Every structure is written in C-alpha cells, then in structure tokens.
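I am going through a labmate's work and have reached the protein record below. What it holds is a sequence and that sequence's fold in token form. Please read both lines and tell me whether the tokens look consistent with the sequence. Do not assume that whoever made the record got everything right. Thanks in advance; the entry in question is below.
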Amino acid sequence: MAHRDAARKLTQTYISARQEHLDKVKAKALPKTFESITQPAQMKEEAAAALEKSLVGALGEENGKKAATALGGGPSAFDFLRDHAAADILAAGQKALAPYFKLEETVNKVENEARAAGSFDEGMGEKLDTVRKEVFSTLSGIFSQEQMNAWKGKYPRFFEPHEHP
C-alpha cells in the first residue's frame, strides 16, 4: 500500500509540474532574439528545481531526489521548443480525430437505423458519403497529399463512396 501511495504521489507531482511548465510555455512566444533565448533556459531551470522540490516534499528527501533524477531531472526535462512542438502536434491530432469521431458516430447511427428498418436504403449511404467527404476535406487540410495517398492505399474502401442499392 505504501508503494501505491508513493507511486500516486510521484505521478500526481510529476503531472502537476509538467502542466505548470506547459502553461508557462504556452503563455510565452518562441524566442526571436539572442537575448530572449535566456528566458526559456531560465524557465527550464526553474521548472526542474520546482519539480525536485515538489518530489522531495511528496516522497521525502532521498526518494524525491532519486525520482527527480530518474525522471530526467534537470533543465533538459523541460524543453521550451519541444513543449511548443508537442502542443502543436497534439492540437493537430485532436483536429484530425474530431471528424473521424463524427464519421464513426454517423456510421453507428446509420447501422442502427438500418437494423431497425431491416434494410439499408439509399438515404443511409448518402449520409455516410456526406460525412466521409467532410472527414477527408478536414484531413486533407492537415496532412500532406503523400500521407493521404498512403492511407488510401491502406484503406481503399474508406476512401470510396458507398454503393447505393
């Protein structure tokens, strides 16, 4: 039980420190001048020190310092540019997943309607095609043509309109 509590404290402390750092990073612009490069470096050092202090407070002196070292301790664990890039990548992923989830929801709804009606009529296929086109319109604005072509090669049925009876 003590190990679980320590693991929970460690996880909560680390996530809290990373979120606090990410919030600070999001509030700052990427450095544009040589003088402004020192600001992210200082933020990294402050974040690393705050993480170690929080871990020592949560786990005790010895275990807190061990945990800070194991988690990559030091300023390199808080990279300003990497954090900005990660935030952009995650945002793009969310943007890409949203229309897919809408398609999945529509497919489930259409399939349920077809089961209830006992048949798959033309109107249901048109609903699927409309949402499918929306998905690809959104995705083509996020991903390169090369990526879209690779997916089309992997999942050709997903890219083709449904045949209507």
